[in-house]
Design brief:
Blueprint lengths: L1 H11 L11 H8 L9 E5 L5 H9 L5 E5 L3 H10 L5 E4 L6 H7 L5 E6 L8 H14 E11 L5 H7 L2 E7 L6 E7 L1
Parallel strand pairs: 1-2, 1-4, 2-3, 4-5
Antiparallel strand pairs: 5-7, 6-7
Helix pairs in contact: 2-3
Length: 183
């Protein structure tokens, strides 16, 4: 069902990143970089059908908070209907508005940002703005975790973050590059 939902939205909205939701293997590979034993504020860019959202909610503790920012109205509505966990806040907006959103909820800094948005289709200015505002929104030692089909985001991460690592998740269609950028 999630694959058909993704394809329907891909046809209508060219900002949808993939033809299928991320594989559980890829979700685990990204999330192994998160310390779920502590209280976290996690921001998720582009949750789509909620594959990462659901997994994160099973791992994070009861005092943690997840803010999921989805620009696609159909995905946003689907998430709000199907995920009712009070630890998550769903927002239908552009990821470049992260600082406005955090101010609205009186959050100074976040521990992790997970991004599935397709940087390869964004303008240079928007890529830079999202990465710059993400960097500013993270705590010291906070991490920006991006899973991408291309290496487009790498130079933007390297512009702001001192440490940028990458790994491949081949058990996904298409294969993903996972970036871990630490502030």
């Amino acid at each position: 069902m999630d694959t058909s939902r993704v394809i329907k939205n891909l046809i209508k909205d060219k900002r949808v990143a993939s033809i299928t939701p991320s594989s559980l293997s890829s979700v685990k590979k990204v999330c192994e970089r998160i310390d779920f034993s502590k209280e976290n504020v996690i921001v998720e860019f582009g949750p789509g059908t909620g594959v990462f959202t659901r997994y994160i909610l099973t791992k994070m503790n009861s005092s943690s908070k997840l803010i999921s920012i989805e620009i696609n109205r159909n995905f946003y509505e689907h998430l709000k209907k199907t995920i009712t966990d009070e630890r998550v806040i769903f927002c239908n907006m552009n990821a470049k508005n992260i600082t406005i959103l955090l101010k609205k909820y009186n959050i100074d800094h976040v521990d992790y940002i997970i991004s599935g948005i397709p940087f390869s289709i964004l303008s240079k200015e928007v890529k830079d703005e999202i990465v710059k505002k993400s960097y500013k929104s993270l705590k010291t030692d906070g991490k920006f975790l991006a899973y991408q089909c291309s290496n487009t985001v790498k130079k933007y991460l390297e512009k702001y973050f001192t440490t940028v690592k990458s790994a491949i998740s081949g058990k996904n269609i298409p294969p993903l590059i996972i970036y871990e950028a630490t502030k």
